[in-house]
Write a structure and sequence with these properties.
Blueprint (H helix, E strand, L loop, with lengths): L16 E6 L1 H7 L6 H10 L4 E4 L27 H9 L5 E7 L5 H5 L30 H12 L6 E5 L11 H11 L14 H26 L4 E6 L12 H4 L5 E10 L2 H4 L4 H12 L7 E10 L8 H12 L3 E8 L6 H4 L1 H10 L1 H5 L2 E2 L3 E5 L1 H6 L22 H14 L4 E5 H6 L7 E4 L7 H12 L3 E5 L18 H4 L1 E3 L12 E4 L14 E2 L7 E3 L4 E7 L12 E12 L2 E6 L3 H7 L3 H14 L4 E2 L7 E7 L5 E8 L14 E9 L4 E6 L4 E2 L2 E4 L2 E9 L2 E8 L9
Parallel strand pairs: 1-2, 1-8, 2-3, 3-4, 4-5, 5-6, 6-7, 7-8, 10-11, 10-12, 12-13, 13-20
Antiparallel strand pairs: 9-22, 14-17, 15-16, 15-18, 18-19, 19-20, 21-24, 22-23, 23-29, 24-28, 25-26, 25-29, 27-28
Helix pairs in contact: 2-3, 5-7, 10-11, 16-20
Length: 719
């Protein structure tokens, strides 16, 4: 089989529309009789897939279930060559082959044959509860050389890529002899307990483990690229969550792989109460931020299965929405389907999605965000702050941080509010604050970003002085980048506040906020009693700072009488240089996400109107409409993605309610030549006003992409 002419870095020129038709359990159980590569390749071609994940190494690693030519010491020769048989059908069908290589989960019987390879807990016991009954191997031990040998053997086949599922350094690992020795060599210290995130050496352990993983990935990539520079290599990277629980730092990992991808589209259990509509889009945005310095394409793993039931499929509507929310933020998609479902009609619904991605690859995957609002996702806060959660994923058990100032609650509350208001916004991380140009953002929101470096604080203060508007809540900036409480408030001068007490107050269960003055910050709130968020800090406003909201005195009971104004600032607005800083002395984001009260949402609306008037307005849009605003690579097109999550009050969602006659008002930076929709192809009439156009979308089902062709180039900002 010769090398195809179009193989040079194919992932940069073809849509990342990857499918996994998993027949792996059948192969492990029945050998060659368990696979039907002809049917699998045919179905993949029928649904317009670009590439396939295939399993010549089984699902979870087992040396006795390797279905390709290998020389693994002590392991039997393969019962049959699954990989060769697959390639005989996939290559003529035009389906690229990416080998699935599990580097995070090992069958227990295989692990016990190699105890020196296993990850170890602090007490020395082997990690043998992965997926309840399985084990895992250490990246610093001799197993790494076994991996590199298998990579060389796989690269002897005419495959197109290798995908690592994992690796993971688990939350209670790794304290094996190799890790202890290397940590001692690096720091001349014993390894600290991972269970104690307050330990002074815990940041060293976090850095050591993320560097361990990065080094393992770098060496794996070197092995692969030395054989075939045009072979794709990537791993299952971190979704929204702390680095310490998995050892995965996406900023570092983006530099040593060809795609940055994570399980942003895995849905578990009770979707209605536990899985937000915007989960996929949030992870796609975060991946775009983390991949920016490496200029790496991104991909969201959108699992068609309804977790934890491996053989239960989500309805087609959920699948279409997952895909739409991924591509709306420039991310490719991977869709996984079990063999039992391959011939189901619902699988055919994937075909138009992947056909659209192929026909409109440039509009989807070569675009640039035009958002003028950004929300910060702080890995330092997730790693070191007491109010930080670990989410439920295939690699981590859920654990809850402190309720007061919980970072995930604060972040998702702000995210939900902006998302439901159709405000285009980006996510930015710790690295971006210190190293990237923040000037395209008129408004930057820090949702209880408690842990900030001195460099980040300086960059944020400069951002405000140069004309930006900064919003911070609760304990933002009170800790350094390793979670150590600082003396005073390092952003106090910028926010115009002084701490008047060290401890948070709460929970404020039936207390209120009071409006002060008739200013624009609260002019649309009519209620005299605004429910207070649950936790608060005692601050004083600096001279000259405005105080639009104050706290009531704490009531002992909800029927204790009239609430009295304490005079303590709940919201402070301070001018600094050419910009403004707005501080909320409470966990407003958590209240936004939990209660969704009209008064709290109006505070956000007024803030947006004052600081970053929306580029796009859809007056009659329901709060279930997602918006993403981008421009083409040549800057001649503005691209408006609309994703409609409007359904019955149930999930999984089986249908959406179509939105009809949606009026869209769009601020544009140049004269408009034409407007058209791409999913439902048609030219759209539009009206012009100074700096603004308006048009009507006749009907919106799950997804639409509106292309506005300009007569001259658009810049990064739309103002």
């Amino acid at each position: 089989m010769g090398k195809r002419k179009d193989e040079s870095h194919w992932w940069l020129t073809e849509p990342l529309s990857i499918v996994e038709f998993s027949e792996v359990f059948h192969i492990e159980a029945h050998g060659a009789a368990g696979t039907d590569p002809e049917v699998m390749a045919r179905r993949m071609r029928e649904i317009n897939a670009t590439a396939a994940h295939v399993h010549p190494m089984g699902c979870h690693l087992n040396g006795r279930k390797l279905f390709f030519r290998h020389n693994s010491p002590g392991d039997p020769s393969p019962e049959f060559d699954y990989l060769e048989g697959w390639l005989e059908h996939a290559r003529p069908a035009g389906i690229r082959t990416v080998v699935y290589f599990n580097v995070h989960s090992v069958k227990a019987e295989h692990a016990r044959r190699h105890p020196e390879w296993q990850q170890r807990r602090e007490d020395g016991s082997a990690k043998e509860d992965v997926y309840t009954i399985e084990s895992t191997f250490c990246l610093n031990g001799p197993w790494r050389n076994w991996v590199f040998d298998r990579l060389r053997e796989l690269c002897a086949y005419p495959i197109d890529g290798i995908f690592f599922d994992g690796p993971v350094i688990y939350a209670d690992c790794c304290y094996c002899d190799s890790c202890r020795r290397l940590f001692k060599e690096r720091y001349d210290l014993p390894m600290p307990p991972k269970r104690d995130r307050r330990h002074p050496d815990f940041p060293k352990l976090v850095a050591f483990q993320s560097d361990t993983m990065t080094a393992f990935m770098r060496k794996s990539r070197e092995v692969i690229k030395s054989i075939n520079p045009d072979m794709l290599f990537y791993m299952n990277s971190n979704p929204l969550g702390p680095d310490w629980a998995t050892g995965r730092n996406n900023r570092k990992l983006a530099e040593v792989q060809d795609i940055l991808a994570s399980e942003g589209g895995f849905f578990y259990g009770d979707l209605l109460s536990a899985e937000p509509l915007w989960k996929v889009g949030m992870n796609a945005k975060l991946l775009e931020a983390e991949a920016s310095s490496a200029n790496t394409p991104t991909l969201v793993f959108d699992c068609v299965g309804h977790k934890p039931w491996t053989y239960s499929m989500l309805p087609p509507t959920e699948v279409r929405l997952m895909w739409a929310s991924s591509v709306a933020h420039r991310a490719g998609t991977w869709l996984a389907i079990m063999k039992e479902s391959v011939e189901e009609p619902a699988v055919d619904d994937i075909a138009p999605l992947y056909d659209f991605a192929r026909r409109h690859r440039a509009e989807l995957f070569e675009s640039v965000s035009l958002a003028e609002v950004a929300v910060m996702v702080s890995k330092a806060t997730m790693n070191y702050y007491a109010g930080a959660d670990v989410p439920l994923t295939d690699f981590t058990a859920a654990s809850r941080g402190a309720e007061a100032g919980n970072f995930r609650d604060e972040l998702t509350g702000w995210y939900r509010a902006l998302w439901s208001m159709q405000v285009p916004f980006d996510l930015v991380d710790d690295y971006a604050i210190e190293h990237d140009d923040l000037s395209p953002y008129r408004l930057l929101i820090l949702p209880n970003v408690a842990c900030l470096s001195s460099g980040a604080c300086a960059a944020l203060a400069e951002y405000v002085r140069k004309g930006g508007t900064l919003v911070g809540t609760f304990e933002t900036g009170l800790y350094d980048e390793h979670g150590r409480r600082t003396s005073g408030h390092r952003l106090g001068e910028t926010f115009g506040i002084r701490l008047a007490g060290a401890e948070a107050e709460g929970p404020r269960q039936w207390d209120y906020l009071f409006r002060h003055g008739g200013g624009a910050w609260t002019e649309h709130i009519r209620s005299a009693y605004i429910p207070s968020p649950r936790y608060a800090l005692n601050v004083e406003a600096a001279e000259g700072a405005e105080v639009p909201l104050t706290f009531s005195r704490a009531l002992p009971d909800r029927y204790a009488g009239l609430a009295e104004d304490s005079g303590r600032p709940a919201m402070v607005v301070n001018s600094s240089g050419n910009g403004k800083a707005i501080y909320f002395a409470c966990d407003l984001g958590a209240a936004l996400g939990t209660w969704r009260l009209a008064e709290h949402l109006q505070i956000v609306r007024d803030l947006i109107e004052q600081c970053a008037p929306p580029t796009v307005r859809i007056p009659d849009a329901p709060p279930s409409l997602e918006v993403s605003l981008r421009r083409s690579a040549d800057a001649h097109e503005v691209l408006l993605h609309l994703v409609n999550y409007t359904g019955g009050m149930t999930r999984p969602m089986r249908r959406v309610v179509p939105l009809k006659d949606l009026t869209v008002e769009l601020r544009v930076p140049a004269a408009v030549q034409s407007v058209c929709t791409l999913w439902s192809p048609q030219e759209i009439d539009f009206e012009k006003r100074k700096g603004l156009i308006s048009f009507v979308i006749p009907v919106l089902h799950e997804y639409e992409l509106v292309k506005v062709r300009l007569r001259s180039k658009a810049g990064r900002a739309m103002s």
